[in-house]
Amino acid sequence: MQVFITSPWVPPEFIGAHGLEPRGVWFAAEPSQLPLGAGICAFAQAMIRLAETRPESAFIFSTHCDQLRRGFDALTLTLPGRVFLFNLPATWQGRVGERIFGSELERLGSFLLKIGGYPPTAKALGESMARYRLARSRLIEAGADCSARQYGEALARFHWDGTVNLGGEAQHARADGIALALVGGPLPTWQMDLLDAIERARGRVVLNATEAGERSLGLASQPEADYTASHALPDLLQLLTRSCLERCVDVFQRPNTRLYLWLKERLAARGVRGILLWHFVGCDLWRAEAQSLREAFGLPVLLLAASEARSDALRQSTRIQAFVESLG
Ligand code: SF4
Q1: Which residue's alpha carbon is at the smallest distance from atom 8 of ligand 1?
Q2: Could you say which residues of the chain have pLDDT below 50?
Q3: Long-range pairs for 162-168 at CB < 8 Å and ≥24 separation?
Q4: pTM for this structure?
Q5: 200 Cα to the center of ligand 1, angstroms
Q6: pLDDT of res. 32
Q7: CA dist 202 → 41, 196, 232, 275, 317 (Å)
Q8: Which of 65, 210, 251, 279 to mutate for ligand 1's pocket (most ligand atoms within 8 Å of CB)?
Q9: pLDDT at position 284, please?
Q10: CA 192 – ligand 1 centroid, Å
Q11: Mind listing the domains of the chain with CATH numbers?
């Protein structure tokens, strides 16, 4: 059975170890277009529609924003037993976050058994963790050699099925564009013509810090634990909990200094000259960061708002072009 995940911080390796198929929603087909309610984030709404059209699958929502929480509430009525709400701890300092995350994994494990998964063995979990860790490391290394579109699609595919597939020949990033960072919420494949629009405007995305972008991969420098060695299941679960919390770099965390530290290092190292802040209309979490990003990094920030689930990159192109020209 396919188990759809709406947050990159819910570990797919854990779901895979239960014999189920984890599927990151960023690669799923474009959901059908229906009128949206005012103020409702189009991504959260798209997730609800996706779940409604796949009643045979399971969906994991997370508590990192109220809109997804409400989406979960709505679906518990229409898809009873098929949706799960993962409580992502906002706090990452001290042991509290570790305790909360560990108990959420336990709860998620029980849910996965109820929908047909089998109890994971230490071998299955260790192998699944090792496979995902390797794929994340390979993708971190591959980033510099790919075009923004190629990399964005490869990341979405990784979240879909755990594979590293850069789509044939490397389509090298243009060398002459203005270096930009794309920071913000989810950028599913059906919205990725935004990346082409940026390139056409002579911008060069050297940092994809959207929800399922490079930001979701963790740090290349994270210590390599040997998951396949003979660890007992509880030890592996503890390792998984720690690695998930270490990897998590997001705007909902309190304090969200880790996000700023993660960005600071990369913005400087990659010579970024401007930030494109990507968010869905109705997403206060990201929209509220515009001023903080300007102040923290002293860089110009352009807000790009997606008002619909389908791409509106064409509408955005003129603004992107003006922004890039102002940096030239
Ligand atoms: S884009 Fe923002 S509002 Fe929408 S689901 Fe993600 S965090 Fe929530």
Answers
A1: 65
A2: 309
A3: 162/12, 162/13, 162/16, 162/22, 162/131, 162/132, 162/135, 163/135, 164/135, 164/138, 164/139, 166/142
A4: 0.93
A5: 27
A6: 65
A7: 29, 10, 52, 14, 11
A8: 65
A9: 87
A10: 17
A11: 2-122 (3.40.50.11890), 125-218+252-327 (3.40.50.11900)
